[in-house]
């Protein structure tokens, strides 16, 4: 029989593992995305964010980005837990794809959630708390959609695939949410989301990512054509088209419009399931935080966090300043 102390420790470990199963990007990743976005906000968007979030979140999208993960285990917010992902019914690593009708027919998925909270964040009939919630959901979901395993149905987004991270038991999903990310941030980014964000901001402004940002905003950087192009498809950058059509639909009291950009973002992160994420044999070598797997994964993590942070700023800028203000 186990001594009481070990039993308690084992229970705590089990609970911790369980809690980790559904976290997205983990707090470190989400805060990093929020801090990156904060840096690129245009004046009206910045002012809205600061006023709406207040001192409780240090006036910043960084600290506010984890709220949606914290509340989803509370009874009052349990309904929101299926908004954090879209179950792409594809077949990685052989074939990757996301189809809105196939994978989000119920409208309960991250694609529809981004649309819903974009209309709500500017809905004058909502109260201050509802507006703040809408902003915190956008802050979080634009991050989640960039995590390849949040855009994958296989093995519950990799949760059911056992793996190890530096020898510790984990699963594929958790390793992508937190394990590999934490190891890398501890090793080369000072161990904090603030420093990690500062390093990625530098890459965006003057480093390796600076030549990519126009493509990030175009919503056409995927190899797959978007099949729900609208008639006004030449009317400016896609992010601006998306947000304007949403607001127009809300004013006309229409149903939620399928958006072009979130689908493109989802397809981009889902493509990494074929190129990188499922590129391992759990029974042969379950280790994800060492060697080739880790070396190949970290650039994907850096890219996805930087990209979604930048896109989050662009999205809010269009809503509050009328244009991405980042072109
Ligand atoms: C709050 O944000 C400011 C920058 O706007 C930063 O200097 C300060 O360290 C932050 N405070 C906390 C507690 O994170
Ligand atoms: C939109 O958000 C509200 C408030 O959180 C929620 O009650 C509703 O179910 C959401 N609608 C959709 C279609 O997701
Ligand atoms: Zn999430």
UniProtKB/TrEMBL annotation:
Signal peptide residues on this chain, from the entry's feature table: 1-24
Cross-referenced Pfam families: S1-P1_nuclease
Keyword terms, alphabetized: Disulfide bond, Endonuclease, Glycoprotein, Hydrolase, Metal-binding, Nuclease, Signal
Database matches in CDD domains: S1-P1_nuclease (cd11010)
SUPFAM superfamilies the UniProt entry points to: Phospholipase C/P1 nuclease
Biological process per Gene Ontology, one example term: DNA catabolic process
Keyword Hydrolase included in the entry's annotation: yes
Molecular-function annotations in GO: endonuclease activity; hydrolase activity, acting on ester bonds; metal ion binding; nucleic acid binding
Domain of life: Eukaryota
Keyword hit for Signal: yes
Homology family: Belongs to the nuclease type I family.
PANTHER family: ENDONUCLEASE 4 (PTHR33146:SF26)
Name of this chain's protein: S1/P1 nuclease
């Amino acid at each position: 029989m186990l001594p009481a102390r070990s039993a308690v420790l084992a229970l705590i470990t089990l609970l911790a593992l369980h809690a980790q199963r559904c976290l997205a990007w983990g707090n470190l990743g989400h805060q990093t995305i929020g801090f990156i976005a904060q840096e690129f906000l245009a004046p009206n968007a910045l002012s809205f964010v600061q006023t709406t979030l207040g001192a409780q979140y240090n006036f910043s999208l960084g600290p506010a980005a984890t709220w949606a993960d914290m509340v989803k285990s509370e009874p009052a917010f349990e309904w929101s837990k299926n908004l954090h992902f879209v179950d792409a019914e594809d077949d990685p690593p052989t074939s990757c794809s996301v189809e809105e009708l196939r994978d989000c027919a119920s409208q309960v998925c991250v694609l529809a959630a981004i649309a819903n909270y974009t209309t709500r964040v500017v809905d004058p009939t909502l109260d201050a708390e509802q507006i703040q919630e809408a902003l915190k959901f956008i802050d979080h979901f634009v991050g989640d959609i960039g995590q390849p395993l949040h855009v994958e149905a296989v093995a519950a987004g990799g949760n059911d695939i056992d793996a190890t991270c530096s020898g510790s038991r984990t699963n594929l999903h958790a390793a992508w949410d937190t394990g590999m990310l934490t190891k890398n941030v501890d090793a080369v980014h000072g161990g904090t989301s603030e420093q990690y964000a500062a390093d990625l901001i530098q890459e965006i402004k003057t480093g390796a990512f600076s030549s990519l940002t126009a493509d990030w905003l175009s919503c056409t950087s995927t190899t797959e054509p978007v099949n729900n192009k609208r008639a006004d498809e030449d009317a400016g950058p896609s992010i601006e088209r998306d947000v304007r059509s949403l607001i127009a639909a809300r004013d006309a009291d229409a149903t939620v419009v399928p958006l072009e950009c979130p689908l493109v973002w989802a397809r981009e992160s889902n493509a990494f399931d074929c190129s990188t994420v499922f590129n391992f044999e759990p029974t042969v070598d379950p280790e994800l935080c060492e060697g080739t797997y880790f070396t190949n994964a970290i650039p994907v993590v850096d890219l996805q966090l930087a990209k979604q942070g930048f896109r989050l700023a662009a999205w809010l800028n269009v809503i509050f300043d009328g244009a991405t203000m980042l072109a």
